[in-house]
């Protein structure tokens, strides 16, 4: 099963309209459900026509999305939910790639690669929990950078995340007072 967003320049032909609520102004959720055919071209010649399902969806925030799928059995609301969850997974992996770059793997065996990926996933989850517990307004990337730079410093983590400069000055001044 595939669920994707429709391309703006998609060339399709509507074969059957299942639901059409586009005239109702205040309606949220599924606005339109259609069966369509899309031409597959090779060198400008149509070699195949795909039968797909097109779903127009309006979110509670007022954003409108158009999904295309090859699944004709699932309810249209579930298709929208599948795409939303898939998008959340994409955002998670984007955040992981930006903050925990896996430039190289420490082993060639699949078990070693899996362990390294699991460690990154656990670090990601730990950072999300710390960020939520600290109730900080720092961006996720800034928080990761601050923690990475001060990983071996002795500071109270949640205080440090909330107000980095104040906690660092308090800790640094305390250490300077102890030195001869």
Task: Describe the SSE topology.
Blueprint: E1 3-5, E2 12-20, E3 29-42, E4 45-58, E5 64-69, H1 76-99, H2 110-134, H3 140-149, H4 157-162, H5 164-178
Antiparallel strand pairs: 1-5, 2-3, 3-4, 4-5
Pick out its properties.
single chain, alpha+beta, five-stranded antiparallel beta sheet, 5 helices, elongated
The tally of helices reads 5
What is the molecular shape? elongated
What's the arrangement of strands in the largest beta sheet? 1-5-4-3-2
Unreliable segments of 5+ consecutive residues? none
Query: What structural class do helix, strand and pairing data support?
Result: alpha+beta
Oligomer: single chain
In what range is the share of β-strand residues?
Answer: 25-35%
Strand segment count: 5
Q: Overall pLDDT, averaged?
A: 83
Biggest sheet record:
5 strands, antiparallel
The value of Rg in angstroms is: 25 Å
The rounded distance between the terminal residues' Cα atoms is 69 Å
H-E order? EEEEEHHHHH
Q: What is the helix content?
A: 40-55%
Give an overview in words.
The protein is an alpha+beta fold and 180 residues long. The chain has 5 helices and 5 strands. It has a 5-stranded antiparallel sheet with strand order 1-5-4-3-2, covered by helices on one side. The longest helix has 25 residues. The model has no long low-confidence stretch (mean pLDDT 83).
